[in-house]
Amino acid sequence: MSFFERLKQLLGSPGVSRIPSKNDGDGSDSCKSLTCMEAMAKVQEYLDGELDGVSHEEVAHHFSLCQRCYPHLKLEERFRGLLHRSQVDEECPEDLKMQVLELLAAEAGESD
């Protein structure tokens, strides 16, 4: 079993089908018109639905074809899902809120 297949299994998506890329496994940084570097730089905006300068379809197409980038996307999706679930019905402790606010205020004061 390849690393890619083990990662898909670990992330709970063993049945996800993908169209193999002609670049799969050859170390090339491009799939179609979007490079791996460009796709990975846009992964957060892609997941947030806030892409700028590139269409959602272009990025989705790259991730659907690229064996190098797809695991990163799935890992990020899984991480976000777990993070969201961990925050449901949980309130941040008041002392932690105060520490964060103090740090932010201190940082804002340093940048002035």
Question: What is the gist of this entry?
Answer:
The protein has 112 residues and is mainly α. The chain is built from six helices and two strands, in the order αββααααα.
Tell me what the structure shows.
With 112 residues, the chain is mostly helical. The chain has one domain. 59% of the residues lie in helices and 4% in strands. The chain contains six helices and two strands. A hairpin with a 2-residue loop joins strand 1 and strand 2. The longest helix has 18 residues, at 70-87. The radius of gyration is 19 Å and the shape is extended.
Total individual domains: 1
Order of helices and strands: HEEHHHHH
Low-confidence runs? 13-32
Task: Summarize the main sheet.
Answer: 2 strands, antiparallel
Per the principal axes of the C-alpha atoms, what is the gross shape?
extended
Q: Kindly, what is the distance between the CA atoms of the first and last residues, rounded to a whole number of angstroms?
A: 54 Å
Helix content: 55-70%
Q: Rg to the nearest angstrom?
A: 19 Å
Please write out the topology.
Elements: H1 3-10, E1 30-31, E2 34-35, H2 36-41, H3 43-48, H4 56-65, H5 70-87, H6 94-111
Antiparallel strand pairs: 1-2
Key traits:
single chain, 112 residues, mainly alpha, two-stranded antiparallel sheet, 4% strand, extended
